[in-house]
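Dear all,

This email documents one entry for the complex benchmark we are building for the journal club exercise. For each entry we list the sequence lines for every component of the assembly. Then comes the predicted three-dimensional structure of the complex as a token string, followed by one or two observations. Please use this as the template for your own entries, and keep the labels exactly as they appear.
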Amino acid sequence: MSLPAAKSLHVDTRGKGTYGITREIQCFLNDCGLREGQITVFVRHTSASLVIMENADPSARRDLEEWFERMVPESTPWFSHTTEGTDDMPAHIRMALGRTSETIPVVGGRLALGTWQGVFLFEHRSAPHRREIILQAVGS
Amino acid sequence: MSLPAAKSLHVDTRGKGTYGITREIQCFLNDCGLREGQITVFVRHTSASLVIMENADPSARRDLEEWFERMVPESTPWFSHTTEGTDDMPAHIRMALGRTSETIPVVGGRLALGTWQGVFLFEHRSAPHRREIILQAVGS
Amino acid sequence: MSLPAAKSLHVDTRGKGTYGITREIQCFLNDCGLREGQITVFVRHTSASLVIMENADPSARRDLEEWFERMVPESTPWFSHTTEGTDDMPAHIRMALGRTSETIPVVGGRLALGTWQGVFLFEHRSAPHRREIILQAVGS
């Protein structure tokens, strides 16, 4: 693969939660052969976001998910954008509090993630969705 | 235009709210001729931010704006940074909860935004402001 | 230094708070000689984040820090991820509300920061920590 390079990654979610994509990013890095530069991760949706979160103890991610659930309650009475269901507007707001793009440095052919960092898709809708993420490598 | 390329974009706001800049980013992409790579969008202020939000139904953006308004109230009694007015400190905090930079992949000469994604400047001050955004293209 | 270039930056924190790293990024820019492109700042931890915040009046940063402290209280009774102390889970959530990566354009050999923008590491743990940040330059 010649640089710059891009790949479309699909994640089938089972509804709200965090879904690990670190391995897929690592595979893309191996395939494109980037040695020095960066990989941008971009989620093409407005009701799902990205988070680089602790990858060891799943209880940390459960607490994070629960906190987002309580911070933007589905029962908020004054929401006007409600035609798609009570989880729709909270999903947009939770997405806006997270990240749509993350840029991860690549040094010496390796993702510069910390020991405890994993990259996760954060699904904010209740129903299962097929989500698309773009991986984009720039450098040499 | 040769790559890398950059452009300064000015947005005149009418106070608090979200202002679409997707078309301006698309024009920059057309002008610089980037085929594969990424465009970084960077807002040069600490009381305005960026959000990539649903671009179809304006009620979704109104609910988002109202939620930020209520989450960080102007009436917060313990703020000490108040010399510029009651909207100043909430503006900084709302900015910190949003994004200062977004990096959007470009694949085959097209912005890799999803169907429902638009890029918006999120003005957090009450008074109109002239805001500056840097667009920066890297790739080939 | 030839491009792309990367550098590891260490910051010794004294516990919760914001720590300026703009000067270190500027030094890296001077060393690598980037003229047109971008610098990605990436924090390799899940209990510390980045924020590009007002750099003039320290009271703005103190209010920001206090607001994060109150928004995600250490006393939250339902957290399950508590083995590392009461500040552990709030640190992860505050990180998720902030940023792990920021990408700053470089135009004409200068960081395109606004007049009042400074780049800060946002430490969310109570105890002092040695934090590692990767600076990555792409462009020419």
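Observations: Chain C has three helices and eight strands. The CA atoms of residues 1 and 32 of chain C lie 5 Å apart.
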